[in-house]
Amino acid sequence: MEQVEINYELIGQKLGEDIFSKQGTLLLKAGTKLTEYHISLLKNHTLGEKVQIFTDIPQSKFKSEPITLKPYEELLKLVEEEFNELIHTNRSTNFQSLIKKVSQVLLTSMQDTNITTVIEKRKSNNYIIQHSLNVSILSAMIGKLLGYSKEECILIGKMGLFHDIGMLKFNESLLSKIELTREDKEQIKTHTVLGYDLLKTIPYIHPLIPQASLLHHERINGGGYPMKFVESKIPFFVQIVSVADTFNAICSDRPHTPGAPFYYAVQEVVKEAEANQLNPAIVVPFVRYLMRQQLRESVMLSNNQEAEIVFIHDHEPHLPLVKIGENYVDLRKEPHIRLKTPV
């Protein structure tokens, strides 16, 4: 334990001693996990005195055993080769080898708290291939965040890997267009069915893998495509892939649109959850995980002030507590201020 001054950065920490008022009334017991209310209470009653806080902060369930760029790049190359063979011949001579290597990278990536930095650093000339691998890794990570077994997470990762394979059925001239016509957009929507028809012909493939290709653009309110399914008809693992797909698509550079900043992508997936398009039961834990990687990082706010992220709220992680100079600002209470870009 250590003696510290009361400040809002202690939210989430455990109190190391009983706190009494000047009249001797017990205010807070030792072991209390401090909330914003507790901090305000302590500020009012301790009048600048320090309090004891437990310093044995539990480690994250995700051990830092970082994946490097090399296995990521090697797998990226293998995915491109096997996808191209599947598209042009409707078969893959090294399919099982691909699955094995994907599983190995997924196992490593699920132990890496900073896997998103590897995804961000690597830029590929083939958007579809890189997007597919990124969605695979993110999908498996979300599965782990939600408490699924290693085997289930690897399955979810495989679903993410193949979700967009139908896009490779289109000519490069269509995929690289700067501006898409209405007809172009309708044609591209057929990638879901094209991918499903291709994947279901592969022997011994798990049925959820072609389902992910077919249904990853469905939305839980029935506003997606191609089937306009509602939540009850969309497998939950497919809903996980949809969240990973949406987030990575927003972040990624494409011929017809540049990638958006990280915080914008976070806010957009939250908006889609609030609009009942993406499942909040998936989005909130995912965003909480992403935002906790930003703790203590400096950020530029939408009001052009620089701030430090000091606390992530469990249920609204996209609206953290930030420190601007010596002042603490809860973005949940400031609807006109949003996170903008890292500093």
From TrEMBL:
Family annotation (SUPFAM superfamilies): HD-domain/PDEase-like
InterPro entries, A to Z: HD/PDEase_dom (IPR003607), HD_GYP_dom (IPR037522)
PROSITE patterns membership: HD_GYP (PS51832)
Residue ranges annotated for the HD-GYP domain, each copy included: 102-302
Protein name, as recorded: HD-GYP domain-containing protein
Organism field: Bacillus coahuilensis p1.1.43
Lineage, top ranks: Bacteria, Bacillati, Bacillota, Bacilli, Bacillales
